[in-house]
Amino acid sequence: MRWLRTFMNFFFRLLYNEMAWTYDVVSWVVSMGQWRSWQRAGFARLRGKRVLEIAHGTGNMLLDLTALGLQPTGLDLSAAMGKIASGKLRRRGVAVPLVRARVQALPFASQSFPSLFATFPTEFIVDPLALAEFFRVLQPGGVLVAVPVAQVTGPTLPDRFADWLFRVTGQSATNWFAPLIARYTQAGFTAHIERITLPRSIVTLIVAEKPWPQIDKG
Q1: Which residue has the higher pLDDT, 15 or 181?
Q2: CB atoms within 10 A of CB 155
């Protein structure tokens, strides 16, 4: 359904820019209150203290990462999201560096971060230029953790409606995982898919590690 994909792309563009102020409410409603739990599902796979959150959105995960004792940096192209996240962090008294930039040209030195983190990313998650940049700024042995999709499994009528909504909009599709992992492999990562079962949903993770350089023993 090409028209639906076109509409959803337009909707998400609005949601992340002109309508960014509605993002937290919309995400809570469409997930039946599970959005933050889905995002946090990847925390256990992070490594080290420093974390670059890619497409930080309204800043909720930056607050949560800081509360865990980590040292996050947020990156987002949306000026609207940057403004919302900055205000939210300031009101909580939390200092987190926020950077506005494209993922295809990350303004960080090589091997800057042990962890990269992204939740419900757009098409950049399979962009070869973006993957090359992710690989560059990761430290050897570092990991990129992404939460691309979730599936609602709860038994209630609202849960069933949320599951239907995610399926018709392609937000719970899994048929693109194999080619996605292939792209990560081509970019130099060792990548795999994990599924985390929560009480009313299943969250899918992409876990992509930057291997240590092989030592020539000759």
Answers
A1: 181
A2: 7
Beta strand 201-209 with 190-198: parallel, antiparallel or unpaired?
antiparallel
CATH of domain 2-209: 3.40.50.150
- Given a contact cutoff of 8 angstroms between Cβ atoms, the answer to whether 139 and 193 are in contact is no
Question: pTM of whole model > 0.85?
Answer: no
123-149 pLDDT per residue, tens: 888 899 999 999 999 999 999 999 988
CA distance 210 to 189: 5
Q: Give the CB-side neighbour count of residue 210, counting CA atoms within 13 A.
A: 24
- Residue matched to tokens 């946090």: 40
Q: Are 103 and 127 in contact (CB under 8 A)?
A: yes
Which sequence spans correspond to the domains of the chain? 2-209
Helix (H, G, I), strand (E, B) or coil at 15: helix
**pLDDT band with cut points at 50, 70 and 90 for residue 61:** very high
DSSP secondary structure string, 70-93?
-EEEEEES-HHHHHHHHHHHHHHT
Count of C-beta atoms within a 10 Å radius of residue 115: 24
Question: Bigger pLDDT: 10 or 105?
Answer: 105
Pick the closest to residue 48 from 95, 134, 116 (CA basis). 116
